[in-house]
């Protein structure tokens, strides 16, 4: 057998295939003008936010996402934004979102990345903790009206956003206690369900308390930025001078009264997760993107949620599917950190009810 002859034949075949290769014909797909095609009701069903909110967001990010030229039928800024919103709204494959706007899967991937990063950069503008004494007092009054819990400026919790295996030597850090890969996202909510702070960089195996103690919010609290204000949390957090949690096993009427008040006061953060994930189901169904893009999508969805709340778009349209419930994965009680505000409240406030 002539081995060299076989090699020569293979080379000839590759050359023939190369010479006969024909590029696919360049096609221009129809692109629907969704802003004029749908009325307000149908538009919200498909994109989960109103046209008013879309135009407001576009006004902020247009310069960052607009194409440098109109050559080769470049995708317009509004269509880029709508494609990203459609992806957030369905959690589907990128090729499906691309088909909806008449672009390829590769183009859809780049658009989702660029638009998500552009919206996430709006975070300092739309996701803010109170900064002035007037804002702090207003927020404390709003929380007090829920269940007469004093000094509260925020309700904190974490939620897991499912992701694909990120790969690499540290992939298992992203596997949470339920066995799937996720990012553990910390947020702080106010009574009107707006998100005042978001941390979306920690793997699913990290405990809620660990994320909190590594956050800027924690250092601001212990350094007295908000005075004696409190953050209400569940039992996955440790009681401290600025964070209070319920009793897991209340022993008397006063502790039961305290529990009822704090549970109702921290309810906004749970409700905010429900609204956020119903508005953008991709956060419930899971993200199959690069890790950096996934983090940008999470923050972008929080920014869009707040902008929608500012425009009284509080209740997203109903879905045709049942989304997974939000899970409290890290719920075991943490040990108190020395002197804590819960003891003080029990002795000086709730005992007089």
UniProtKB/TrEMBL annotation:
Keyword terms of this UniProt record: Hydrolase, Metal-binding, Nuclease, Nucleus
Listed cofactors: a divalent metal cation
Source organism of the structure: Macrosiphum euphorbiae (potato aphid)
PANTHER family: DDE TNP4 DOMAIN-CONTAINING PROTEIN-RELATED, PTHR22930
Family: Belongs to the HARBI1 family.
All residue ranges annotated as the DDE Tnp4 domain in the record: 156-306
Annotated compartments: Nucleus
Superkingdom of source: Eukaryota
Pfam family, one: DDE_Tnp_4
GO CC, any one term: nucleus
Entry protein name: DDE Tnp4 domain-containing protein
């Amino acid at each position: 057998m002539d081995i060299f002859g076989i090699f020569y034949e293979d080379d000839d075949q590759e050359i023939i295939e190369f010479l006969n290769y024909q590029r696919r014909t360049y096609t221009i797909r129809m692109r629907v003008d969704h802003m004029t095609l749908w009325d307000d009701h149908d538009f919200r069903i498909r994109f989960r936010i109103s046209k008013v909110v879309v135009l407001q967001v576009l006004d902020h990010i247009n310069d960052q996402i607009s194409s440098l030229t109109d050559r080769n039928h470049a995708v317009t800024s509004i269509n880029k934004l709508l494609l990203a919103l459609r992806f957030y709204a369905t959690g589907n494959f990128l090729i499906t979102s691309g088909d909806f706007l008449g672009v390829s899967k590769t183009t859809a991937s780049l658009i989702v990345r660029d638009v998500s990063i552009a919206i996430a950069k709006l975070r300092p503008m739309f996701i803010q903790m109170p900064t002035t004494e007037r804002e702090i007092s207003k927020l404390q009054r709003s929380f007090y009206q829920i269940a007469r819990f004093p000094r509260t400026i925020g309700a904190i919790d974490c939620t897991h956003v499912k992701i694909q295996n990120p790969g690499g030597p540290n992939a298992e850090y992203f596997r949470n206690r339920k066995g799937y890969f996720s990012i553990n996202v910390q947020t702080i909510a106010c009574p009107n369900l707006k998100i005042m702070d978001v941390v979306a960089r920690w793997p699913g195996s990290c405990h809620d308390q660990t994320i909190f103690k590594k956050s800027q919010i924690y250092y601001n609290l212990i350094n007295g930025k908000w005075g004696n204000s409190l953050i209400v949390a569940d039992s996955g957090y440790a009681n401290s001078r600025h964070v209070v949690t319920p009793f897991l096993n209340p022993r008397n009427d006063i502790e039961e009264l305290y529990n009822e008040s704090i549970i109702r006061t921290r309810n906004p953060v749970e409700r905010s997760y429900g609204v956020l994930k119903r508005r953008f189901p991709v956060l419930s169904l899971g993200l199959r993107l690069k890790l950096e893009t996934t983090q940008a999508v999470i923050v972008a969805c929080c920014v869009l949620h707040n902008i929608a709340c500012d425009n009284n778009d509080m209740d997203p349209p109903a879905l045709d599917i049942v989304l997974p419930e939000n899970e409290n994965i890290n719920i075991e009680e943490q040990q108190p950190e020395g002197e804590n505000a819960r003891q003080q409240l029990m002795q000086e406030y709730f005992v007089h009810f």
